[in-house]
Design goal:
Helix content: 10-25%
Largest sheet: 8 strands, mixed
Distance between the termini: 52 Å
CATH architecture of one domain: 3-Layer(aba) Sandwich
Mean pLDDT: 94
Shape: globular
Strand content: 35-45%
Strand order of the largest sheet: 36-37-39-38-40-41-42-43
Structural class: alpha+beta
CATH class of one domain: Alpha Beta
Radius of gyration: 27 Å
Low-confidence stretches: 1-19
CATH superfamily of one domain: Alpha/Beta hydrolase fold, catalytic domain
């Protein structure tokens, strides 16, 4: 059966593998790569009302229609919900109708959609509509509704709550630019993405309060006004004072707030907030500023008192909690914790007292994401790199036996949805050769239902000149395998000589190379350059994501050292290829990759004829505390490391052509980095090229992105002729 399935999967590529001579434009590569040139998809695909039926949006006769299908009616899908029918439901319920059919989440508790700015739930059985989030509240900053019908939001820096009767009361009164409520804190590190956390039952609210009055102001210049105006942000630089964070708990029944007694010192990180199933306790991962000692603490939500530390994690380099505890579905006294303590991010089962019951998963691979439990709470579904670091596959683990099962065994990057009972999977995946396959599969080995292909996308670039894409590994000097990606020119001949462009990133929490359509690249610029006659090469060096703790932590206190060694391995590989013109090689990187690009050309002059560094860190003492101190310690603790990575002081070494690019409103890698480097080049009599993008932050987005990549293309092309 597997052989038959594989044959079906790749049949379209046999039929449609004849490439044409059409070349990509930069507009194609940058703007249309995610629209008309993206692989075909099934819009809004999801399971229907916690069943094994599935639904998706489809065009029929020029109109969007919701389609429905299931296992038993193989090969049959039928119109389920039209605009006309939906509007008849809305009229019967006495609410606004739609001009176009909306996106809908078909949950067991009703159909959730946006109706004229209101977030509503329609119950198809009672024919009633419930307003979950009214339009006036939905427009508020950080608005988030609770399961009990309350809505929390920010207004003029302060936290407000609206009850189910739409009565509003103010929770805080001292909010300002310095005192920040109910927002993401700690510069979005440690997995933090929001500041409002409703309890399980939805009647209590935990929220952040961040006092950043002691943090230095930093000017971001708004050049669009006359005269230009400095907009001050709070930017805590490595070694300086950090903000102070507390966690408040609001009881909606009494409209009173207490503060959890998270203790001292004030400069600590409070992350991974989770509620107990009974709403009585809040759990917080408390991390010291040094980021090498984490305590998972329990606090009484009715008094604010510290209850106990469930367990601690220490590391000689750093600990980085990223995911809150997850209570079991039907056993509230047990929870799942993610940790890389054994060298790889794995799942652990604990009881409420902090006793480890067992390590649930184990192996030289990473758990990437937990998807949830089946309806009985017996199995936990998760995404992992079990096949290899360039693949993402859905797995399950049986909580009692610890048996782990690979549910999507085909190589590729899988984005899977699991039905409520855990018996069916909507599996969308791609590989470097396969733009997208969507299939419906069963988790039951005894099932007579074979995988059912719902969609097989053809190559969206079929009309364009073909470029070879390959993934492979090389070894660094330590014997580590490094994943590489290479685009070869259209009409590639190993007997010819080609110029080379190397693109890299090399920093933590990023992975450039995947066994997915386009090899993990989000746009088609690499293919565009290959069509222009370049070999385009990328290597994921040490420090990059999903290769285990030791692979990432090798960069600790000496950023760039391991990465430059690994790029050297890549350079040696390229130079050994007969088709590579080693005298015409260019280097390109952004952000951390901009730092590494500049670092490389300073230390290895003459290897690359030209380089481009976008949004580059040039001096880690100017970067933010949370990220910078994790990987470098403070400047006071690691003066040698900061000196070695201060590229401003090494600007006089520059021999190669180098283009620096920076967004003028960058609040992440502030422009001071590149400006200081340019100033040092002037002082040393060294020539450097510089481009700015007004109105853009850490990256250049929208239509201006075409301009950016035209600039990069023109610069590299002019130097590599």
């Amino acid at each position: 059966m597997k052989k038959c399935l594989l044959a079906l999967l790749f049949l379209p590529f046999y039929l449609f593998s004849f490439s044409q001579d059409k070349l990509l434009t930069l507009e194609d590569a940058m703007l249309r790569a995610r629209s008309i040139l993206a692989p075909e998809n099934l819009a809004q695909l999801q399971f229907f009302e916690n069943s094994n039926d599935y639904v998706f949006l489809k065009k029929q006769n020029g109109q969007d229609v919701w389609m429905r299908g299931n296992y038993k009616l193989a090969g049959q899908e039928w119109p389920f919900l039209s605009l006309h029918l939906l509007n008849s439901y809305m009229q019967d319920a006495g609410t606004d109708t739609f001009k176009t059919i909306p996106a809908i989440r078909f949950g067991a508790d009703g159909w959730v959609m946006n109706n004229n700015g209101n977030k509503i739930r329609y119950n198809p059985y009672t024919k009633k509509v419930t307003v979950l989030l009214p339009k006036d509240l939905a427009a508020k900053e950080n608005a988030e509704e609770s399961p009990a019908g309350f809505t929390a939001y920010l207004d003029k820096y302060n936290l407000y709550v609206s009850n189910p009767e739409n009565q509003v009361y103010q929770v805080t009164t001292d909010g300002s630019k310095d005192i920040v409520y109910a927002s993401s804190v700690h510069r979005d590190e440690f997995g933090i993405s929001k500041g409002i956390f409703w309890s399980t039952k939805g009647t209590k609210l935990a929220f952040y309060r961040m006092d950043q009055s002691m943090v230095n102001d930093y000017p971001i210049i708004n050049w669009s006004e006359r005269p230009a105006r400095a907009e001050l942000i709070k930017y805590p630089m490595a070694g300086d004072k950090s903000h102070h964070v507390r966690v408040g708990v609001l009881n909606t029944a009494t409209e009173t707030t207490l503060w959890l007694k998270t203790g001292i010192p004030a400069e600590q990180y409070l992350s991974n907030i989770a509620w107990s199933p009974d709403d009585q306790n809040v759990f917080i991962a408390v991390l010291n500023r040094e980021q090498n000692h984490m305590k998972l603490n329990q606090y009484d939500a009715t008094t604010g008192d510290f209850v106990k530390t469930l367990f601690e994690e220490k590391d000689e380099k750093y600990v980085e909690p990223l995911v809150p505890m997850l209570f079991l579905k039907n056993t509230h006294g047990q929870f799942i914790w993610q940790s890389n303590r054994d060298g790889w991010n794995q799942l652990y089962l604990y009881d409420i007292n902090g006793k480890q019951i067992r390590q649930l998963t184990k192996g030289n691979w990473e758990v990437l994401e937990v998807k949830g439990f089946d309806s009985k709470g017996e199995n936990l579904f998760f995404v992992s790199t079990m096949l290899s670091a360039v693949n993402k596959n859905l797995c399950s683990v049986h909580l009692k036996t610890g048996k782990t099962t690979l549910l999507t065994p085909l190589p590729g990057v899988h984005a899977a949805q699991v039905s409520a009972d855990g018996s069916a999977i909507l599996d969308a995946f791609s590989t470097i050769d396969n733009p997208r396959t969507i299939q419906l599969i069963t988790t039951k080995k005894s099932s007579k239902n074979p995988p059912r292909i719902l969609l097989q996308s053809v190559n969206p670039l079929i009309e364009y000149a073909g470029t070879d894409l390959s993934l492979f590994t090389i070894q660094n000097k330590n014997g580590d395998s490094l994943f590489c990606r290479q685009f070869n020119p259209a009409g590639f001949s190993p007997g010819k000589k080609y110029p080379v462009i190397v693109y890299w990133y090399g920093g933590p929490h990023a992975q450039m190379i995947l066994n997915s359509w386009n090899g993990g690249a989000g746009d088609y610029w690499f293919r565009y350059m290959a069509q222009q006659g370049y070999v385009v090469f990328t290597v994921d060096t040490r420090g990059s994501d999903n290769r285990g703790k030791a692979f990432e932590q090798s960069i600790f206190r000496k950023l760039g050292e391991a990465q430059l060694e690994d790029l050297e391995a890549g350079v040696n590989y390229l130079k050994a290829q007969s088709y590579v013109d080693k005298d015409r090689m260019g280097l390109f990187g952004w952000s951390f990759g901009g730092f590494l690009t500049t670092d490389y050309v300073l230390h290895y002059p003459g290897v690359f004829k030209a380089a481009v560094a976008g949004g580059p860190v040039m001096d880690w003492s100017l970067y933010e505390i949370m990220y910078g101190e994790r990987y470098m310690d403070t400047p006071q603790e690691n003066p040698e490391g900061y000196a070695a990575t201060n590229l401003v002081n090494q600007a006089g070494k520059l021999k190669d052509k180098l283009l620096l690019i920076h967004g003028l409103q960058d609040p992440v890698v502030v422009q001071q980095h590149s400006v200081n480097f340019v100033k040092a080049c002037v002082e040393k009599g060294v020539q450097v090229d510089y481009m700015i993008y007004p109105g853009h932050e850490h990256n250049v987005t929208g239509r201006d992105r075409v301009h950016l990549y035209q600039k990069v293309t023109d610069y590299l092309t002019s130097q590599l002729r």
